[in-house]
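Memo to structure team: turn this sequence into structure tokens by end of day. - J.P.
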Amino acid sequence: MSNGAYREVHDRSSNDPAAFWADVASGVDWIHPPTTTLDDSRPPFYRWYADGTMNTCFNALDRHVAAGRGEQAAVHYESPVTGASRSYTYAQMLELVSRFAGVLRSLGVQKGDRVVIYMPMVPEALIAMLATARLGAIHSVVFGGFAPAELAARIEDAAPKVIVAASCGIEPSRTIPYKPFLDQAISRSSHKPDRCVILQREQVTAEMGENDLDWDEVMKPGVVEPAECVEVKATDPLYVLYTSGTTGKPKGIVRDNGGHAVALTWSMKNLYGIEPGEVFWAASDVGWVVGHSYIVYAPLLAGATTIVYEGKPIGTPDAGAFWRVVEKYKVASLFTAPTAIRAIKKEDPEAAEVAKYDISSMRRLFLAGERLDPETYKWATEKLGIPVIDNWWQTETGWPIATNPVGIEELPIKPGSPSVPTPGYDVQILDDQGNQVPAGTEGSIAIKLPMPPGTLPTLWGDDDRYVSSYLSAFEGYYLTGDGGYIDEDGYVYVMGRTDDVLNVAGHRLSTGSIEAALAGHPSVAECAVIGVADQMKGQIPRALVVLKSGIDVSDEAAAETLRKELVERVRNEVGAVAALKLVDVVVALPKTRSGKILRKTMRQMADGQEAQVPSTIEDPSVLDSLRSVLRKE
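Reply from structure team:
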């Protein structure tokens, strides 16, 4: 590990976290600066900057306009699905956000009230989020197009005063009307919002009810008085973001105002190397934590320019979509999911589309959201000619647990590792008894408490569930739910969810190591390994592979040759103990909309159990097509 700048910063954050985060807090404009950095009076409920007051929207917009950045671009909107492009300066965003905050205020929204936002990737989603924050209210963004039952559960739990929605979302092949889903969700919920504000899009006009207001009408200049920023405590909630479980009540991850603003402002320069005025593009969705942190808040808190992209990595219109946007807006860094790069690689394995565009502005590609397999890393590195940097974090943490901190010190990259623990995080590998294990030994990845600012302080309205879900396995630790190891250089390796660890005849094997071996085959675009029940060995691995475009194994002899080659690769790279024999070629893998492969659901199907299908599944038909494959002997 580095003995240089990174080591010095991480040591400071570990040895005296209160002093370290007191210094970092100067990156935020406070109304009343905190005199207490860490309140540890009620463990495990640690609070950062407890006596400080501020406003997140002020830090994201007002202070930049006051400092002379008003004419700088704050947001570029690029919508290949509609053909629309618009840009907004910081001054324009401030005007629109102040006006919509006035609309919400006129509807009775006050500090601490909740506003549910159910919108596609349009600038109005950011305006609604920031306007809610301006009033000191709490937003809960629900991924646009979520099914009525899922939306209803969130309305029930958050109890919003107002819901802000759009008439529709637009996919490459279809338009999804949102208003019928919203109406059904409200009818299912015992909580009823006072009003709904609907952004009418020209592709679908929503039928309005008596409690519905038209966005364009209420946003006309002069209809309402623009609202100023409301002072809130650093510990007051900024938002609630629900993680989608497969059963029961969704977990509402709480993010506070102060710690969140401090951590994200600091992360832009120190972790991502982004300076004010530069263009940072997180190709995600505002419905996910990446969208909250790195489309909306972090770039604007840091005075950078962000991109709202309503499209896909392929098919809108082709596998060059990302590179066209990079060229158009001179993107300095792109942040997306490995699954997006795998999709591009599958469609354009020789990177012919990359060559069509000038992407010289792009210094780095950051990837997160799903394990970055070494083969995807290698392809992106070779074809783009820039550092490809993995970073690992969770909805719960809100910003990276481990990454290559390029703004502090650009460390050597090790394929398969998201590099080193981020300053502020004390990452440890524990065995089943909660003891630290030696370097190179796999175990449960845990974070010693207290976690840094910006991470979840609790769950919405449910302290007990927060403790039982995350803090009860090992006293004094947050359990990430991921397994992996730390090597002798201090690099973290995340091998997959702990319930994806296979136990083959007493040998513990991570799905990640087998998948890495399979992904190295020149014909494989993407793969997933699950552990299925076996009478003799307890579990055996089963592989599902998606092939690159142009690879034809429709002939059974060709398919059998490929299977043998894949089995041999795993034997050579992981060892005979992996005992991989079952390999199926499939058209696609089932995923959530954020790119996570549904290994647990596939495992349940293969074992003949009732499969728990997350509400966030992107295309249910993929799972349906796998039923016959997974259930055959």
